[in-house]
Amino acid sequence: MILLAYAWPAIGAEDGPLPLEEITTWGVSLIFFFYGLRLSPTKLKAGLSDWRLHLVVQLSTFLLFPLLVYVAHLLWPGSEHQLLWLGVFYVAALPSTVSSSVVMVSIAGGNIPSAIFNASISSLIGVFMTPLWMGLYMSTSSTAEMNLGSIILKLMVQVLLPVTLGVLLHKRFGAFAEKQKSRLRLFDQTIILLIVYSSFCESFARQMFQGFSAGQLLLLGLAMVVLFFLVFGLIHVLSSFLGFSRENRITAIFCGSKKSLVHGTVMSKVIFPDVNIVGIVLLPLMLYHALQLIAASVLAQQMAQKENSERNDE
C-alpha cells in the first residue's frame, strides 16, 4: 500500500477521485461491530478472577509504554522530526492486539481465557486512554493540537457504540459471525489497507517525507525493537517477582507487550484531523507491528519447545 501510494498519490489523496474517507469511516464502524459480535461474554467471564494478571497487563499497556517513551524523549529531546516522536508516542498509547496476542499465548502454552479477556478489555479501555495520553503529549509539545472531548465522543460513536451493539447481538448472531471469521478478517484487512493507502497518499502528495534518510528509518526500526524487548523483559521480571504461574506469566508478557495496528490505523482517522501528518505518524506503528509479530512468534515457539522438552524429561 505504501508503494502504491508513492507511485499514485493523487488517487487516494483528500481531493482524489475515490471517496476513501467515507468508505474507511463506515468500514471502521463495521470492523468494531463484527468484533463485538464475536466477543463472547462467557469467555470474558472465564478470565475475570486473575485480577493481578489483568492489572499487570493493563498497566504495562497504558502506563509502562508511555512512560518509557516519554522518558526517552526527555533524554533525546531533539527538535528534528517531532512527527516521528509523535508516532512513537502514539504506538505507546495504543491498546494491545486481540487476535495475535491470543494466538501467541496459545502457541506458548499460556492462560488463553485471561488472554482473551485482557486483549478485549484493552481494546475498550483504549477508546479513552489513547486520546487522553495523546492529548497530554500534544499539550506538552508543539507538534499538533487536539480537541480531547470531541475525539472521545467520535471514538465512542465510531468504536464503542458498534462494539456494544455487536455484544448485545452476540447471542443471536455470534455463531454466524464466528463461522464467517475468515471473511470478516479479509474485510478488516481491506479497510486497514485502504486507511494506510489513503494516509500515505496524502503524505506523499504533500511531500511530507522529504528530509528522512534510509539511516533514520533504520534507526527508527531499531528503536521499535528495543522498545519491544525492554517492555517484554520488564513484564517478565515483574511477573516472576509476583510469583505468577508459567501460564499467567506467558499471558502477561505477550498481551502486555503488543500494540494493535487495527486500533492504531482506525483511531488515527479521529485523533489526527490533519490528514497530512497521518502517514508519518503511522510509520512507527507499522514498523513496531511487523517487528513484534516476528519477535513474538519466535519467542512463543521457543517457550513451547522448552515446555515440551521439560515434559519429555519428566
Automatic annotation (TrEMBL):
- PANTHER family from the entry? SODIUM_BILE ACID COTRANSPORTER 7, SOLUTE CARRIER FAMILY 10 MEMBER 7
Organism of origin:
Rufibacter latericius
Gene Ontology, cellular component aspect: plasma membrane
One Pfam family name is: SBF_like
User: Known InterPro entries for this protein?
Assistant: Na+/solute_symporter_sf, Put_Na-Bile_cotransptr
Tell me the keywords, alphabetical order: Membrane, Transmembrane, Transmembrane helix
Q: Does the keyword Transmembrane helix apply?
A: yes
Question: Under what name is this protein listed?
Answer: Bile acid:sodium symporter
Bilayer-spanning residue ranges: 23-41, 53-76, 82-108, 115-136, 148-169, 215-238, 277-300
